[in-house]
Amino acid sequence: MTRHYDAIVVGGGAIGLSSAWRMALRGMHVAVVDPEPGRGASWVAAGMLAPVSEVHYGEEPLLALTMASARRWPEFAAELESDAGAGIGYQRTGTLVVDVDDDDRAWSDELFRFQCSLGLEVERLSARRVRQLEPNVAPGVRSGMLVAGDHQVQTRRYVTALLAAAARRGVEFRRASATAVDVVGATAVVGVHTDGDSLTAPIVVLAAGCWSQSIAGLPDGVLPRVRPVKGQILRLSGDVSRPLLQRSVRGVVQGASVYLVPRADGTVVVGATVEEQGFDTTVTAGAVYELLRDARRVVPGISELALTEARAGLRPGSPDNAPMVGTTAVDGLLVATGHYRNGILLSPLTADTVAALAAGDEPPPEMAPFGPRRFAPAGRS
User: Fold this and answer.
1) Which residues contact 338 (CB under 8 A, 6 or more apart)?
2) What are the pLDDT digits (tens) for 239-285?
3) Distant-in-sequence contacts of 81-88, Cβ < 8 A, 24+ apart
4) pLDDT, tens digit (0-9, with 9 covering 90-100), for 123-178
5) pLDDT of 374 over the 60 cut
6) pTM (two decimals)
7) How confident is the model at residue 379 (pLDDT cuts 50, 70, 90)?
8) Bridge partners, 252 (sequence order)
9) Predicted local confidence at residue 381, as pLDDT
């Protein structure tokens, strides 16, 4: 059976779902191809919207992109909640960054100076002020920084809302695996083959995360250069009437970063490892131990919480760990992948970029440096 659409999105994570929803809002008939939409890396993610506290040296262009997307989040969240008829747990509580010894304090002092040089909104805090804001941080914490502009969203509620809003706007979900993109004359897409159907459309959006390079049918040099980066993450449950934390806390423990993200239901999300292990999603005892060890150095009270879940997800990493969003050498083929650790944060801006390109409009200028053609081409998998 062949079905026709205005656009087909390959991949049902936060990027693919938000792009499908935004295209549908423009009146396009859209299909999403994914065997389990919403259940990939987005389901595992902690949901920190943290462009400031996660900034690194040499990533100033990426910072401009993440800040631009962060500015879209309040309106984007409100519109999504209205369209889906459900909340997504978007909170503007900020992030508290703490360091637990003198070496880590020296590192965070350097980070603070770098953030200030970029004009970012950060406030250096004494140890006493840190404990006033979060009484349950460890007594030995040396100092901290408050990043008021960093927010968070409950990712599972977020992707569930995206599914509902997209369906309400007429998006169809083909719960199958995309086996190939159909290309005519190696120059233009005409559809997508799945393991059950053939779908036709003049526009195909490749948003399959780290699996985007494994889609068959495309000419050599078109597939995005993307790889899986494993991240293990924990969920702990506590007493909702006595929350352990009021805001996200990121700790620097002997040079390593660990974060704790509290939820309104008493859950605390602890993460996350960064591992170059290919397509491996095994949860390892070592990673669980190290996450709990470092988190306990920051907030000792987590020892009293119940460990309810340990999961591993695969982030899509590009050669420079920045997203690849835009047109390709094949007419009608758009790429939206490679978001690495910023997929949830960048989903509003990415979705608006994809929707604009699909409609033939000018995309947001902030995305211009992050087109997929900036890298040497990858061969066909």
Assistant:
1) 224, 225, 226, 316, 317, 318, 321, 322, 323, 324, 372
2) 999 999 999 999 988 777 899 999 999 999 999 899 999 999 999 99
3) 81/161, 83/21, 83/164, 83/165, 83/168, 83/169, 84/160, 84/161, 84/162, 84/164, 84/165, 84/168, 85/164, 86/157, 86/160, 86/161, 86/164, 87/157, 87/161, 88/153, 88/154, 88/157, 88/158, 88/161
4) 999 999 999 999 999 998 989 999 999 999 999 999 999 999 999 999 999 999 99
5) yes
6) 0.95
7) very low
8) 99, 257
9) 37
Element (H, E) at 178: strand 178-184
Rounded CA-CA distance 143/130 in Å is 7
Strand partners, 102: none
Do 244 and 271 belong to one domain?
yes
> Is residue 50 within 8 Å of residue 345, measured between CB atoms?
yes
Query: Phi and psi of 31, rounded to 5°?
Result: -120, 145
**Cβ-proximal residues to 177 (8 Å cutoff; 6+ apart), any chain:** 33, 35, 194, 195
State whether 235 and 286 are in the same domain: yes
Residue type, 312: A
Q: CA 316, 322, 327: angle at the middle one, nearest 5?
A: 90
Please give the DSSP secondary-structure letter assigned to residue 29: -
Q: Is the peptide bond before 272 cis (omega within 30 degrees of 0)?
A: yes
Domain that holds residue 245: 95-148+228-317
Residue 62 lies inside a defined structural domain of this protein: no
The angle subtended at Cα 47 by Cα 46 and Cα 51, nearest 5°, is 120
CB within 8 A of 121, min separation 6: which ones? 52, 147, 148, 149
Do 17 and 128 fall into the same domain? no
In angstroms, the CA 34 to CA 78 distance is: 26
Partners of 306 in the β-ladder: 237
Tell whether 362 is covered by a domain: yes
- How many Cβ atoms sit within 10 Å of the Cβ of residue 200? 16
Q: What is the DSSP letter of 277?
A: -
329 and 366 part of one domain: yes
* Per-residue DSSP letter, 231: E
Tokens of 153: 């969203």
Residue-wise pLDDT tens digits, 221-230 = 899 999 999 9
Residue 208 sits in the same domain as residue 249: no
